Amino acid sequence: MSAASIVAAGPAHAAVLAALHAATMGENAPGAEGWSTAWVARLLALPGAFAFLALAPGEPPEPAGFALCLPGGEACDLAAIGVLAGRRRAGIARRLLARCEDGARAAGARRIMLEVAEDNAAARAFYAGAGFRAAGRRRGYYRASSGAAARDAIVLSKEL
Ligand SMILES: CC(C)(COP(=O)(O)OP(=O)(O)OC[C@H]1O[C@@H](n2cnc3c(N)ncnc32)[C@H](O)[C@@H]1OP(=O)(O)O)[C@@H](O)C(=O)NCCC(=O)NCCS
């Protein structure tokens, strides 16, 4: 199968980004509320926000993953990155992250930062391999929808 293509996403893609967020982030998003289309559109309207979509080849191409970054001066915030379960381990997140890093550098950021659930082994392995290092902890950052205990987030940072 040929590789997915990575394209810049804008407000017109808010619905597909929200759907990808719901399908990929699950318990790995803070809070239980998810991202509505309107919320994604609001995020993308923030000055300096940017996002990418991964499209798997097809007619029409099929959304396979996404990433969304928010500006934070010297520290760009990778707010979310997710790849559909059936499309994982094909390098899509690595390529999405590379585009985010390019975008952050172009915006003048010196580092890229994010939160990851302490028990999200796949994402932690992904970020460690991509050169992120632990920079802090946010206690109870991931509130569970089901009454289970809240989980801590590890703050990760990578110099650009
Ligand atoms: C984390 C996530 C984005 C990785 O996406 P992906 O497209 O499968 O990642 P890639 O194929 O680009 O992986 C790149 C490297 O990261 C590491 N990696 C990725 N997934 C891994 C896993 N499940 N276990 C161990 N290492 C993993 C590997 O080193 C991999 O390289 P390799 O496949 O050559 O060994 C994906 O698992 C996902 O969407 N998870 C749910 C959402 C989520 O948790 N997002 C992050 C929230 S902070």
Largest sheet descriptor: 7 strands, mixed
**Based on the structure given, which CATH architecture of the domain at 5-113 is correct?**
3-Layer(aba) Sandwich
CATH superfamily of the domain at 5-113: Gcn5-related N-acetyltransferase (GNAT)
The strand order across the widest sheet is 1-2-3-4-5-7-6
- What is the rounded distance between the termini? 32 Å
Name the hetero compounds present: coenzyme A
Helix content: 25-40%
| Annotation field: number of helices | 4
- Specify the structural class: alpha+beta
- What is the chain-wise order of helices and strands? EHHEEEHEHEE
Overall strand count: 7
Beta-strand portion reads 35-45%
Q: Ranges with pLDDT <50 over ≥5 residues?
A: none
Write the layout of secondary structure elements.
Blueprint: E1 5-9, H1 14-25, H2 37-45, E2 50-56, E3 62-70, E4 75-83, H3 92-106, E5 111-117, H4 121-129, E6 133-142, E7 151-159
Parallel strand pairs: 4-5
Antiparallel strand pairs: 1-2, 2-3, 3-4, 5-7, 6-7
Helix pairs in contact: 1-2
Describe the structure in your own words.
With 160 residues, the chain is an alpha+beta fold. The chain has a domain at 5-113: Gcn5-related N-acetyltransferase (GNAT) (Aminopeptidase), CATH 3.40.630.30. It has 4 helices and 7 strands. A 7-stranded mixed beta sheet has the order 1-2-3-4-5-7-6, sandwiched between helices. The model has no long low-confidence stretch (mean pLDDT 93). The site of coenzyme A (COA) has 21 residues, from α1, β4, α3, β5 and α4. Coenzyme A (COA) binds at residues 24-25, 28, 81-83, 88-94, 114, 116, 120, 122-123, 125-126, 129.
